[in-house]
Amino acid sequence: MWSNLHLDVLANIFSFLSPDSLARAKSVCSHWHTCAKLYHLHSVSQHRRPAWFLALPTRNRGLCCYVHNPVADKWHVLSLDFLPDPVRPVSSIGSFLLLRPINSTILQLVLCNPFTRQFRYLPLLNISRTNPAVGIVMEGPAQHGPFPNFRIYVAGGMSDEPGGGATYESMVEMYDSRHDTWQIIGSMPVEFAVRLTVWTPNESVCTGGMLYWITSARAYSVMGFNIESNTWRELSVPMADRLEFATLVSRNQKVTLIGGTCGGDACVWELSEGGDDDIWCLIEKVPIEMGMRLSGGKASWGGTKCAAGNGAICLYREVGLGMIIWREDEDKRKWEWVWVGGCCFTGGKQVQNVPVRGVLLHPSLACACILNK
Description:
Elements lengths: L6 H8 L4 H8 L3 H9 L13 E6 L6 E6 L4 E6 L7 E7 L2 E6 L8 E4 L4 E4 L11 E7 L9 E7 L2 E3 L5 E3 L2 E6 L4 E7 L2 H6 L8 E4 L2 E5 L7 E5 L4 E5 L7 E9 L2 E8 L4 E6 L8 E6 L2 H7 L10 E4 L3 E5 L6 E7 L4 E7 L4 E2 L2 E2 L5 E6 L12
Antiparallel strand pairs: 1-2, 1-28, 2-3, 4-5, 5-6, 6-7, 8-9, 9-12, 10-11, 12-13, 14-15, 15-16, 16-17, 18-19, 19-20, 20-21, 22-23, 23-24, 24-25, 26-27
Helix pairs in contact: 1-3
């Protein structure tokens, strides 16, 4: 595996190394020496580097994903044939993917490093449930590193009743990576459990001690969970009944909403400081020409998805269409819109244009102990 890696993939992995470790790596073989020489590598902190985009087909059960390297602007196909089940992404956690198998309605989560071909099923939840909301909370100073500590919160969904049938699940569970266990931490209002079931997208935002999810059934609203006090609140969404798509992301540690209307603009709003006043401030609009390009000239935002992380927000639909990226330019101290071409050919072979679901993460080849528990 090591001798066959593309130079740009190897270079990105080398950028994690300290100067002395990089010097030793350059002496391993001619391939590694060439890589380090061509790319003029130097160690940089992970949170300052652009994240890679990984896209998994949503309608194809083939075990592969498409990977875009933002530094070299290249696409690769990455095999996931080491996984026993077809999966779809839930979130990125450091250099890992959090996945869920799609051949079962009962939620079970899988932690995976697609570059080292390592994976591990997390323990089963205390309460079996279908289609709940999943939220990620990163912890400690290592949250930007390859081996972060994290917690996973699961809320809502449907569970079986003792006498038969199903009911909306009001218990909230939390997984702690340091203890590798799930625990029930409290309950939520049943009406909130209903809103966080079935159609809720997996994207979550954590900031200021709050976890936020957006519902995916119109009219949109946002559910907020105070982690410390174990309390819930519902927030309104601007243009809630008109948006064709809406998603939550975190930008500069603020809750940010992106949504678009049919035949209209896609806008970016930020929640006011503290968030208690439910005030959304319009801060930006997606360039019209890029929106038309993403939709294939249809002036529709239906089917648009979003991935965000590490100073970048990515709007996408199908792997071959290309992506709209709003990213931070630290040198210019501003955010700018760029277009990234889609994955049409890799290795000289044409790639089928299919709908995908993507995440942003930083690749690493370090073997993680958390995947060997």
